[in-house]
Amino acid sequence: MCGIVGYIGKRPAVPILMNGLKRLEYRGYDSAGLAVIQNETLWLTKRKGKIRGLERQISSLNIDGTPGIGHTRWATHGEPSKINAHPHTDCTGRIALVHNGIIENYRLLKKQLQAKGHVFQSETDTEVLVHLIEMFYKDDLGAAILKALQLVEGTFGILVISLYEPDRIFAARRGSPLVIGVGDGEMFLASDGAAIVEHTRNVIYMEDDEIVMISSEEIQARNLKDETVIKSVEELPFDLESIQKEGYAHYMLKEIREQPRTTLDSMRGRLLLEEGTAKLGGLQNVWDRLRKSRRLIITACGTSWHAALIGEYLIETLARIPVEVEYASEFRYRDPVLSENDTVMAISQSGETADTLAAIREARCKGVLALGLCNVVGSSIARETDAGVYLHAGPEIGVASTKAFTSQVVTLALIALALGRERFLSAEDGRSIARELKSIPEKILGILEHADYIRTIAEKFSHHHQALYLGRGFNYPVALEGALKMKEISYIHAEGYPAAEMKHGPIALIDKNMPVVIIAVRDGVYDKVISNIEEVKARGGWILAVVNQNDTLIRERADEIVEIPVTANCLTPILTVVPLQLLAYYTAVYKKCDVDQPRNLAKSVTVE
Ligand code: G6P
């Protein structure tokens, strides 16, 4: 979603801002803009469409001023257009502001400001902020921003520059992340460390309700009650290399191929083979409470919600603790019935998804233990939960989540194993699952060797307009995830279903034009899935089956098969999802789709 960058120092701001905006492209956006202070004027440019267009537009201009701020916008209030793109300015054109988040009471504020004579240019909620600052400005910009923010409801991460105080940038946040990069006589700002990591790894994370004045040499932080706040410098937990494509055509392919390493990283130091259990340092302080939970509610969105569904199967099977899985967007608004013996766990790659964050806040308000499974270190969910586990999958740039998903399932398997061993699971069974977990990275590597074959299947897929994905038990959520991957990036309508439910509706759609992907590994429901395959075949459907190596029964029935190595039933999702990720990827490539930045999607959904 929207991205923010800022720079103050000795160098011209424009190249640094443009570069930072490019690094944020992966998050999804529809327009972009910059504002820079140059020779005592506020220079501003913005444009609908890709950053490349903006770059062409300014390439012949000689703008070498500083400080500057930049923004990529993902439209919420008002269509994607030049006028609605950020930065926005006040009536005098002396203050410029970029904003991530949503100002919920903007209509009322806009009316009041218009009544006082302020003239609005855009349809955005954001523009009220800059007019409020203008209204409050006397001779102290920080004080005016503070007063303005005290009036707004909603979420914001903002940067402000002004001709009134041209040697500083102001930043403030509530609910939308902002990080300050500390350089040598220069400072960088961004909504995501990826935008600044090539300049510095020394960063200061801003907290909610903080407002910070940044010059090239110093930082002064206050909270919205106007009290001084002391900030400390931390190290960004990734480097430039980890956010580059490294020769791959797309980030998504790179991230699919990284999975042997990333799943291993998620297990590293946590899996205890001899004892047949796992140890998760981040949960130690709350372990006793978690272990005694009467119920676990896992809440998430998108791909993370699919991982949560697998978590439900894993934890119920191995630890016999009842688990419920809730879309975070539903959980937060339905006044859920929670008791003190419940635990709520949020799963989020970014750690910033607005609904998941709100769900965690709702849980904490009700006094239950709140846990987080996040990939992004220092993210809002990671910081606002009582305890949690990092996935250690490294930065995920492709909008369609792949390596984060397998790391989420690995991490959930570790939690289920550790809980299970303290409840019902024997040491022998624990050791067997631990051994299987250890062999997962090697097995993923084996599946990746079939990539060329999967590419040939993808070519056939690319001519279709719809597809059905079926799975049962542990692999039902994988059917959902496979279908989601396909529709996200190739725009082929795909639906995931529990295989047996096919008879209650989707079977009406089956004919030779409906490819059906069936996950049919040898687990407890293998025979049942074979019956489902027969039902599809009897209606002329075309079948791609994901099967175990050396399967003969399904080979005879399916049109195409992809083989995966055998593992413990409960761990099969970590393997079965990999061919489906590749299938979606190559199908999108055949269809010439923008794989890493699919239309209308955002990597991190920071608005509800
Ligand atoms: C967006 C992304 C998905 C992701 C979902 C949840 O929709 O495009 O890939 O699964 O948000 O994101 P989270 O960061 O909370 O896992």
Overview of the molecule:
This protein has 608 residues and is of the alpha/beta class. The chain folds into three domains: 3-236, 4-Layer Sandwich (Glutamine Phosphoribosylpyrophosphate, subunit 1, domain 1); 241-449, Rossmann fold (3-Layer(aba) Sandwich), CATH 3.40.50; 450-598, Rossmann fold (3-Layer(aba) Sandwich), CATH 3.40.50. 35% of the residues lie in helices and 22% in strands. It has 19 helices and 27 strands. An eight-stranded antiparallel β-sheet has the order 3-2-4-1-10-9-11-15, covered by helices on one side. Strands 5-6-7-8-12-13-14 form a seven-stranded antiparallel β-sheet, covered by helices on one side. The protein has a five-stranded parallel β-sheet with strand order 19-18-20-21-22, sandwiched between helices. Helix 9 runs parallel beside helix 13 (403-421), helix 13 packs antiparallel against helix 14 (427-448) and helix 16 (476-490) runs parallel beside helix 19 (572-590). It is globular and about 80 Å long. The N and C termini lie close together (12 Å). 6-O-phosphono-alpha-D-glucopyranose is lined by residues 301-304, 348-350, 353, 356, 399-401, 601, 603-605. 6-O-phosphono-alpha-D-glucopyranose binds at residues 301-304, 348-350, 353, 356, 399-401, 601, 603-605.
